[in-house]
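Retry 2 of 3 after timeout on previous attempt. Resubmitting structure tokens to design endpoint.
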């Protein structure tokens, strides 16, 4: 049985999915409360804001980073338990359709992505001779190593939580209802983009950048279907978020951290980000398709 068909191995009534969605909403609200309460204790009577650098510095970047990731820990373990106990899904089947989780694929793609993201992120500054004026070396051992430890522990969980929600619960659930791969991938990508619509990048770059999240969601759905498992999507999601938190950070993105480099450039045009992102996803797909000898897109049904 193909990975996208895995929902058929367990119970999949409409009421069970409604209960799962309600559980996700409840867990996210509960997981977000500690940040709200901690913020109110630090700044009584003030609104929680992520665009005030001074308040974030006073609150503590690492402290804020931890509380932002905390809800995803509840989401990951909560949904995983719900899938096993309520939907009656086997643990391995949740992550892959093969006999074992293919760690070799995960780490191979993670390595490739680390190199490509470094090149794509730093090369434009080097070409324009702005490497030292806009991209600032920001290393501080006392701040960086706690950030690195926290990131390595929680970002894979955060990425896995989103993959369970969108590439397992949504994608497989939609396919179980519609029986149509392309429609299921498109709808899961729309859901992925919608949930990310409140990210600070939307305010900085404009509403057009929501298309980037749609492309990312569709790319992750497509490689999950072709790969017959979550290994590659988990690798991409984990490395992409680790890179944003630990390697290069900026003041207008969702993570405000003491990364190795600080990008002080203006956000720029949403359309340039969309063009670069689109080309990046297409390039990655063809690398993966050639490496793993995937079937042509026309054969997906």
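Retry 2 succeeded. Sequence:
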């Amino acid at each position: 049985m193909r990975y996208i068909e895995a929902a058929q191995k367990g119970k999949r009534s409409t009421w069970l999915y409604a209960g799962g969605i309600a559980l996700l909403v409840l867990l996210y609200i509960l997981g977000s409360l500690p940040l709200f309460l901690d913020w109110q204790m630090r700044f009584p009577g003030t609104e929680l804001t992520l665009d005030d650098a001074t308040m974030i510095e006073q609150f503590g970047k690492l402290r804020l980073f931890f509380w932002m990731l905390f809800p995803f820990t509840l989401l990951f373990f909560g949904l995983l338990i719900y899938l096993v106990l309520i939907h009656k899904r086997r643990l391995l089947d949740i992550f892959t359709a093969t006999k074992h989780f293919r760690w070799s694929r995960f780490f191979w793609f993670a390595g490739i992505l680390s190199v490509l993201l470094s090149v794509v992120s730093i090369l434009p500054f080097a070409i324009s001779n702005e490497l030292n004026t806009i991209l600032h070396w920001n290393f501080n051992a006392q701040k960086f190593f706690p950030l690195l430890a926290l990131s390595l522990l929680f970002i894979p969980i955060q990425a896995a939580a989103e993959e369970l929600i969108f590439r397992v619960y949504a994608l497989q659930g939609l396919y179980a209802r519609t029986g149509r791969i392309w429609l299921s991938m498109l709808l899961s990508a729309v859901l992925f983009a919608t949930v990310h619509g409140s990210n600070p990048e939307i305010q900085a770059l404009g509403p057009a950048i929501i298309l980037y999240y749609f492309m990312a969601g569709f790319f992750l759905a497509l490689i999950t279907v072709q790969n017959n498992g979550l290994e590659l999507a988990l690798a991409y999601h984990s490395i992409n978020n680790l890179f944003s938190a630990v390697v290069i950070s900026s003041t207008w993105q969702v993570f405000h951290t003491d990364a190795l480099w600080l990008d002080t450039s203006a956000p720029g045009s949403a359309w340039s980000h969309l063009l670069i992102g689109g080309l990046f996803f297409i390039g990655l797909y063809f690398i993966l398709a050639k490496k793993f000898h995937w079937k042509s897109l026309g054969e997906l049904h």
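Attempt log closed. Residues 2 and 80 are 20 Å apart (CA to CA).
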